[in-house]
Amino acid sequence: MRIAYYPGCVAQESGKELDMATRYVARAFGIELVEFPSFSCCGSGFIDEANEALNIAINARNLAIAEKAGLDILTICSTCQGMLTLANLRMQDPSMRARVDGALKPLGIEYRGTVKVKHLLRVLTEDVGLAAVKAKVRRPLAGMKVGAFYGCHLLRPGDEMAWEDGEEPHAFEDLLAAIGATPVDYRGRVMCCGFPIQFVKPETASRVGGRQILDAKAHGADAMATPCPLCHISLDAYQNKASKAVQAPLDMPIFHLPQLVGLAIGASPEDMGLARHLVPTQPALAKVSAPAR
């Protein structure tokens, strides 16, 4: 499988461990990641609030770059997935297309709307397939109870994302089961992590994130896993603030999706960059009872 790799901003800077894990997993499953240094930020939802046409134009430019190479796009971020997918859909509106085409024309760029945007979660569960993932497992994560945390933009708006049920998704849990972990069902798995308001109302954002962690913890989770680097920041990097906001100890290890897959197929914690996490992951890893095979 050959696909344009859109890592997003966080995985290229503060969350480089997420990029490391993605590359490891991609190699293991024969996914060729084609890189385009000229890709720009997706706008992270913030530009969209101020200027919808500009946000769509930014993402249409990214889509056009992949289209010119004849490739679909792989994302590892729920927010990037949402912004690129919504741009694809909104370009179907003739009036919006005219505005965006006008903005792109001076750059010599045209987007015809042929690119599919696929999150790594969907690639692993559908394109690679759960059976193939399970066949690669060398260190089943048996004994580790993991709460999947989907984030907002991977599932919603449901009619536009057109994938899983925004209230009762199961792909992430299916993947966790395939690598030997025990999925934890809890309401917070489809709620917001708080990141969108972290820089406007930080205390509220921390309280939101803290409640989701407490929910996962109350349902027996040893760790949480997310398909979104922004959720990863909110739940890991800001967990100390979240703990103060909810007035409770949290101590919840937060993994990014490819990190758990990588560990299960034989990667070391060093390969997955786990030392870069602010909340130690060792307590969760200690739950794993099966040796590597």
Structural account:
This protein has 293 residues and is of the alpha/beta class. The protein is built from 13 helices and eight strands. The protein has helices spanning 16-28, 46-50, 52-68, 78-90, 94-104, 120-136, 158-161, 171-178, 202-218, 229-237, 239-246, 257-264, 282-285, and strands spanning 2-6, 32-35, 73-75, 117-119, 145-148, 182-183, 223-226, 254-256. The strands form two sheets. A four-stranded parallel β-sheet has the order 2-1-3-4. The protein has a four-stranded parallel β-sheet with strand order 6-5-7-8, sandwiched between helices. It is globular, with a radius of gyration of 19 Å. It starts with a strand and ends in an 8-residue tail after the last helix. The model has no long low-confidence stretch (mean pLDDT 93).
CATH architecture term of the largest domain: 3-Layer(aba) Sandwich
**CATH level 1 name of the largest domain:** Alpha Beta
What is the number of independent domains?
Answer: 2
Q: Work out the radius of gyration.
A: 19 Å
Main β-sheet, in a few words? Answer: 4 strands, parallel
Oligomer: single chain
β-strand amount: 5-15%
Shape: globular
SSE series? EHEHHEHHEHEHHEHEHHEHH
**Low-pLDDT stretches:** none
Mean pLDDT: 93
Helix/strand structural class: alpha/beta
Number of strands: 8
As a percent range, the share of helical residues equals: 40-55%
Number of helices: 13
- CATH fold label of the largest domain: Rossmann fold
Terminus-to-terminus distance = 27 Å
Strand order of the largest sheet: 2-1-3-4
